[in-house]
């Protein structure tokens, strides 16, 4: 649905052009929710604004629905933009217009519909975003979440096939964020809409994106399926972002006592990472029953990412060396990851 090819954008600076996007290649499929995440200043907003030419790329191509947007200007560009809706962080709705008139605005600008047709379309959109009862309210009478629903209804009024969301939930509290993300997900499913989601919050990506690209200093440093990125982040920026959502790190109190050590002896600390179907198996009780090990859980988190279970358990394991080795082999045979983190010193071991 969207092809971004060798996209570059530079802004003029005091000593010459300052590159902000440095060669972006991305392909976004029809009906996908595609997340673009990065730290502040990574170039996310600039990238999303290049998709509807609110910013004109310095080099490269943007193709949306088979049409090369980056080659268009004037009336042809305005017409192409009707196929690309956009939702903003601060809603950008007009305080002097009612909810209904805000949503009707793009239809008035496009023209071609009678007043009756416009109103029917607007009411349909308000129904879709759950604001049918607020049609005659003014923005000042709405909560942040409701204002964003108006923003979404307005973006969808021209029946676009792509919806760009630039930090659409960043101004909202966690509860409202959840409801707006659920709405975007629902709309994506119901209308088969392609959604591009710009955010700095990994939680947003985890909640609804199918695939994600990580942007750093104007480059895509990693991209893939959300589950894969969460479970096997490769780039340091991705790892740092994932850590904000999944606490994979050991608590300080345990980490401080960890020592490198051979397999033999007491207090061996092993981290087991659960992914895929084996994540549902009772692996710890297996280790106790089959290999006669003693197990003390030090730290753990089990979560679901897009309905697939994922988690880590850090355990202190005791037992004969041969049993330990066999147990590690057993865990790996189950396609779970088992890493020896080290050993905790004997007097400190009894930490649960
Ligand atoms: N119109 C502009 N003129 C000059 N520099 C700009 C312009 N727009 C953005 N920049 C610069 O481009 C860089 C990337 O900005 P951008 O807003 O795209 O990043 P971002 O990842 O969306 O960050 P944030 O979440 O903080 O907005 C920043 O260094 C910013 O100062």
UniProtKB/TrEMBL annotation:
SMART domains: AAA, NIL. InterPro entries: AAA+_ATPase (IPR003593), ABC_transporter-like_ATP-bd (IPR003439), ABC_transporter-like_CS (IPR017871), ACT-like_dom_sf (IPR045865), MetN_ABC (IPR041701), MetN_ABC_transporter-like (IPR050086), NIL_domain (IPR018449), P-loop_NTPase (IPR027417). GO terms for molecular function: ATP binding. Pfam families: ABC_tran, NIL. The keyword Hydrolase does not apply. Residues 2-242 form the ABC transporter domain. Keywords: Amino-acid transport, ATP-binding, Cell membrane, Membrane, Nucleotide-binding, Translocase, Transport. Gene3D superfamilies: 3.30.70.260, P-loop containing nucleotide triphosphate hydrolases (3.40.50.300). PROSITE patterns: ABC_TRANSPORTER_1, ABC_TRANSPORTER_2. This is Methionine ABC transporter ATP-binding protein. It comes from Phaeospirillum tilakii. The lineage of its organism: Bacteria, Pseudomonadati, Pseudomonadota, Alphaproteobacteria, Rhodospirillales.
């Amino acid at each position: 649905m969207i092809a971004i090819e060798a996209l570059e954008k530079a802004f003029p600076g005091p000593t010459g052009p300052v590159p902000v996007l440095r060669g972006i290649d991305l392909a976004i499929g029809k009906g996908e929710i595609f997340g673009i995440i990065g730290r502040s200043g990574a170039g996310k907003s600039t990238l999303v604004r290049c998709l509807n030419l609110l910013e004109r790329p310095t080099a490269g191509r943007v193709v949306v629905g088979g049409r090369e947007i980056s080659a268009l200007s004037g009336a042809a560009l305005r017409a192409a933009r009707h196929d690309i809706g956009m939702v903003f962080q601060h809603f950008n709705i007009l305080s002097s217009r009612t909810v209904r008139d805000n949503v009707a605005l793009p239809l008035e600008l496009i023209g071609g519909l009678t007043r009756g047709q416009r109103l029917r379309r607007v009411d349909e959109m308000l129904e879709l975003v759950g604001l049918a009862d607020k049609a005659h309210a003014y923005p000042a009478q709405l909560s942040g979440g409701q204002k964003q629903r108006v923003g979404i209804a307005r973006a969808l009024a021209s029946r676009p096939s792509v919806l760009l969301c630039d930090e659409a939930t960043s101004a909202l509290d966690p509860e409202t964020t959840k409801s707006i993300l659920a709405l975007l997900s629902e709309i994506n499913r119901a209308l088969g809409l392609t959604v591009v989601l710009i955010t700095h919050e990994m939680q947003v990506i985890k909640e609804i994106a199918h695939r994600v690209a990580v942007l750093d200093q104007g480059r895509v440093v990693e991209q893939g399926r959300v589950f894969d990125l969460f479970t096997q982040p490769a780039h340091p920026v991705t790892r740092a972002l994932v850590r904000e959502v999944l606490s994979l790190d050991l608590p300080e109190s345990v980490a401080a006592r960890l020592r490198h050590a051979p397999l033999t002896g007491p207090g061996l600390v092993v981290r087991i990472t659960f992914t895929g179907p084996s994540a549902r198996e009772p692996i710890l009780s297996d280790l106790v029953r089959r290999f006669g090990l003693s197990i003390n859980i030090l730290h753990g988190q089990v979560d679901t990412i897009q309905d697939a279970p994922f988690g880590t358990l850090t355990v202190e394991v005791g037992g004969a060396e041969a049993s330990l080795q066999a147990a590690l082999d057993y865990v790996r045979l189950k396609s779970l990851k088992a890493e020896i983190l080290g050993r905790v010193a004997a007097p400190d071991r009894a930490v649960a």
